[in-house]
Structure formats: structure tokens, C-alpha cells
């Protein structure tokens, strides 16, 4: 489902809560999860035996780094003996670490780790670059792992020795290489390259993730080592890409002056020129010019921001439930605090979108399907990144002033961000992630669409964006996600 974000809408609280209701209802009634996207339960059906042929982002193909054959049966017997020893040493602490790393898909914990690092570093929208690099590496490494898995079809330990007992259910895929180790190797290599002062912590976490599969008894030591090696090799490709993506390029421009222009010290002024994954450049879908500074439309927008009642329902914060699984309550059925929504959507979008993605991966039973889960993480994070680059390209093409630049007396709920107004980056980024997730999880399309519209509306309610910036952000984000989805439709999955 695409283009749900492309039609400008009235961003009142009432209409934001209604957003997508008609089209979303059609999607809800008509959609069914495509059969290839249904995760196979561990047991009789093998997990994605053709995933090694899926289109990759960094590798030329899944077979580019084909691993050598796994060890012989004689070596495997020795490895089983080692696993038996480790099984005899399972204590509560060891099993807790097994459960930690076994929660969700192999990339689940690494997305948490990457987001936590971005918060620690205080890099704001630069986190979108981190998430795209990490998840592209995990996806490609997973595809490469599946190429080797079904090339060699190594039985899992419980299949090789019926007397051996695993601590967790054994996945229905060949053992070699370890899917958790390959994700750990890829993610840790990327994060170590981006944040070298914490490189050892990432390496240690990757080693623990691999060791947890041995304690669990679902893979051999050689599976884990091969997975770590393969993941690190793919992660090195992502790290090399990061060195040439333009993120470290210095800004040599100047802030233009004039009526209706933005004023201040800009953040990430070169981001609009950063290398994209799907778009030909950040300007491929460049936004049309914003309303002229002296136009009737701009005057009406200034008045709208100035006159918006903040907060529309004061005191309603404690009764607000941001995670309503059915989407927002019916308009006006309960009091909703506009300020609560403003603060809820204020953080970097990955802190909202990625946990929602993890939840939907679990709900759609993709958490036991490593290739499908890795693909979902990669598509959403790449859509988020490319959309943000596109938003920045428009911002620093037009340098449009924020509401306070037109009327310094305007009060805002949030401090005005140190970037131009048009288009809204939050609206663009959330519009892109919502469109991508509606494609991946069509049953919940209305939920994602209403969240994106609400996020966009919150920027106007906060007093930090004009309506035209919010509307254009949703439209631009939808177009970027459509391009990502078109690539996804041809990736072989």
C-alpha cells in the first residue's frame, strides 16, 4: 500500500485522528499477509530456503562471500562433546543470557544497541544513518548466511545426536553458519567503525551473542565462528560505505538572509547531499517551492500557528495511552492532550518507528524467520534514512523561516529546532516509515497512516512548523517509501 501519505490534509487534531480511516479500512478488510511473508514455525517446513538468492544492498550477491564447507563428521562429534560439556554448566545466569539474545529476530537486540548508542552520542537525525548502515549489513550478512546454509545443509546438533538436549527450540534451518552470530558480527563491525571508542564493547557483545547459541545447544562452535567472520566481513563493507557517504564533509556555505528566511546556526547542513540507498540523490523528489513569504497563504499559516490553543485539553496527559493497538480512539470520544502528542512525537523518529517495527515483526510471526525480519528492518531503516536526506535537501534548498521567524511573539511547546521549516523532517520521516510498514504489514496500514498524520499534526500544534511543511513532508515521505517499495518488490523475497 503506497501513496497514503501523499495527499495534503487538514492537520487539526480531529482530522489527524481520522487520517487514513477510509483507505485504511479498505486495506484492513482486503489485505491478507502474502504467503511468502508468513514465518515458518520451527518444525516441518524449512525457513526460507531460497533467501540466499535475495537481492542485497552491499554485496553483489548472497554467494559473493560463500563460506567454505563446514567441518567433517569427525570434527562435528568433537563439537557435540564440547556442547555437552557446556550444557552441563547451564546455570540461571547463562540461561538468562540465552533468553536475552534469543528474544526476537537475530537483529532485534542490535537495533536496541544501535539506538541506545545514538542516544548516548546525542547525534539526533544522524541516528538514521546508523540504523540504515547496521540493518543493511545485518540483512546482507543474513542473505549470505542463507546462501551457505542451503548450500551445505548441515544438520543442527539435536539432529546429529538425538541424545543431545537443546535449551531452546531448534530453528528449522540448517546449522551452518549461525544466523545470530552473523547478525552480531555485522552489527558490531558497523558500530565499532562508527563509534571506535566503544568498539571493544560491541565486540564483546557479539562474542556473547554467539556464545549464547552454544550454551543453548542449537549450533556448533564452527557455526558461530563462521557466522561472526562472515558478519564482520559484510560489516566492513558497510563501514567502507560510511566513509564515502558524505556525512563527514565540512559545510562551507553561508546562511542566506532576506525576508521569510530562516536564521540561526544550522544542524547537519550537508545532510541533503549525503549518499542515499534507493534515491538517485536527496533531490530526486525535491519538494516544490513553499508559499512565498508575502503570500496570503503564508499569512494564513502564520495566523493559524499563532492562534492555535496550546494545550487544547490540559490535564489530559495522565489519561493518554499512546500505544492504543487499534489506533487512536474515535475523534472526540475521549479528551486528548495535544501537548502530550507533541512530546510523544518529539524524539528522533527511530525511537518510535523501530520499536513499532519490532512489535509487528513479532505479531506477524517473523521473529523466527531471520531473513524476513532482517529484510523488514533494512527496508524501514533505509526508507527512514533516504526520506530524511530528501527532507534536508529541501530544507537547505529553500531556507524557509520557522513560525517564530515570521512572528517572534508566537509561543511554542517545544524549542524551535535549528533547521529550516520546509519540509517538516518529522512528517517526512514518519510518512516514509509508515508507508514502508504498511507495505510490510498491510493488516495494520490504518494504524501506521494515522500515526504519521498525527506526528505531522503535532509539529503544527507545537508551533514549530507551518501546515505547508507538514503536508509536504507527508507527501515527500510517501514518495520516498514508494521508491523503496518498488525495489523491494523486485528483490526476490
Characterization of the model:
There is one protein chain. With 493 residues, the protein is mainly α. The chain contains 18 helices and no strands. It has helices at 13-18, 21-30, 73-88, 92-102, 108-121, 126-152, 157-160, 179-194, 199-216, 221-243, 296-307, 338-344, 350-363, 370-398, 403-406, 425-440, 445-461, 467-489. Helix 9 packs antiparallel against helix 10. The chain starts with 12 loop residues before the first helix and ends with a helix.
> How would a textbook summarize the main sheet?
none
Strand content: under 5%
User: What is Rg?
Assistant: 24 Å
Based on CA inertia axes, which overall geometry fits? elongated
Cα separation of the termini: 17 Å
How many helical elements?
18
Question: What would you call the structural class?
Answer: mainly alpha
Poorly predicted segments:
1-43
- Per DSSP E runs of 2 or more residues, the count of β-strands stands at 0
Q: What percent of residues adopt helix (DSSP H or I)?
A: 40-55%
Helices and strands, in order, run as: HHHHHHHHHHHHHHHHHH
Mean pLDDT: 89
Amino acid at each position: 500500500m503506497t501513496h497514503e501519505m501523499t495527499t495534503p490534509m487538514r492537520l487539526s487534531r480531529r482530522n489527524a485522528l481520522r487520517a487514513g480511516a477510509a483507505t485504511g479500512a479498505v486495506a484492513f478488510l482486503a489485505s491478507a499477509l502474502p504467503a511468502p511473508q508468513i514465518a515458518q514455525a520451527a518444525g516441518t517446513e524449512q525457513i526460507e530456503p531460497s533467501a540466499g538468492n535475495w537481492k542485497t544492498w552491499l554485496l553483489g550477491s548472497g554467494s559473493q562471500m560463500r563460506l567454505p564447507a563446514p567441518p567433517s563428521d569427525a570434527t562435528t562429534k568433537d563439537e557435540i562433546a564440547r556442547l555437552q560439556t557446556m550444557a552441563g554448566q547451564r546455570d540461571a545466569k547463562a540461561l538468562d543470557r540465552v533468553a536475552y539474545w534469543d528474544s526476537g529476530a537475530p537483529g532485534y537486540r542490535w537495533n536496541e544497541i544501535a539506538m541506545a548508542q545514538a542516544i548516548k552520542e546525542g547525534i539526533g537525525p544522524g541516528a538514521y544513518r546508523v540504523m540504515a548502515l547496521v540493518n543493511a549489513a545485518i540483512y546482507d550478512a543474513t542473505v549470505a548466511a542463507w546462501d551457505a546454509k542451503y548450500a551445505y545443509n548441515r544438520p543442527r546438533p539435536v539432529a546429529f545426536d538425538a541424545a543431545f538436549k537443546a535449551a531452546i527450540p531448534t530453528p528449522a534451518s540448517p546449522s551452518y553458519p549461525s544466523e545470530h552470530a552473523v547478525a552480531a558480527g555485522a552489527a558490531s563491525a558497523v558500530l565499532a567503525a562508527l563509534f571506535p571508542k566503544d568498539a571493544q564493547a560491541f565486540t564483546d557483545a557479539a562474542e556473547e551473542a554467539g556464545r549464547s547459541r552454544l550454551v543453548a545447544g542449537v549450533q556448533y562452535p564452527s557455526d558461530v565462528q563462521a557466522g561472526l567472520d562472515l558478519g564482520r566481513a559484510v560489516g566492513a563493507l558497510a563501514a567502507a560505505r560510511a566513509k564515502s557517504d558524505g556525512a563527514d564533509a565540512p559545510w562551507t556555505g553561508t546562511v542566506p538572509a532576506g525576508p521569510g528566511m530562516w536564521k540561526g546556526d544550522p544542524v547537519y547542513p550537508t545532510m541533503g547531499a549525503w549518499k542515499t540507498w534507493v534515491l538517485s540523490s536527496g533531490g530526486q523528489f525535491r519538494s516544490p517551492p513553499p508559499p512565498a513569504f508575502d503570500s496570503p497563504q503564508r499569512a494564513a499559516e502564520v495566523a493559524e500557528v499563532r492562534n492555535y490553543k496550546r494545550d487544547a485539553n490540559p490535564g489530559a496527559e495522565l489519561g493518554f495511552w499512546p500505544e492504543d493497538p487499534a489506533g487512536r480512539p474515535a475523534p472526540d470520544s475521549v479528551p486528548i492532550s495535544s501537548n502530550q502528542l507533541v512530546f510523544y512525537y518529539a524524539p528522533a523518529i527511530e525511537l518510535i518507528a523501530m520499536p513499532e517495527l519490532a512489535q509487528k515483526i513479532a505479531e506477524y510471526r517473523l521473529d523466527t524467520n531471520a531473513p524476513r525480519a532482517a529484510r523488514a528492518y533494512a527496508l524501514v531503516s533505509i526508507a527512514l534514512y533516504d526520506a530524511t536526506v530528501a527532507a534536508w535537501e529541501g530544507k537547505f534548498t529553500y531556507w524557509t523561516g520557522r513560525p517564530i521567524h515570521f512572528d517572534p511573539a508566537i509561543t511554542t511547546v517545544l524549542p524551535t529546532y535549528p533547521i529550516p521549516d520546509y519540509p517538516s523532517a518529522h512528517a517526512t520521516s514518519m510518512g516514509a516509515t509508515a508507508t514502508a510498514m504498511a507495505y510490510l504489514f498491510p493488516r495494520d496500514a490504518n494504524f501506521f497512516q494515522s500515526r504519521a498524520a498525527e506526528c505531522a499534526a503535532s509539529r503544527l500544534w507545537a508551533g514549530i512548523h507551518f501546515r505547508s511543511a507538514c503536508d509536504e513532508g507527508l507527501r515527500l515521505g510517501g514518495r520516498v517509501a514508494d521508491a523503496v517499495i518498488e525495489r523491494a518488490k523486485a528483490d526476490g523475497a
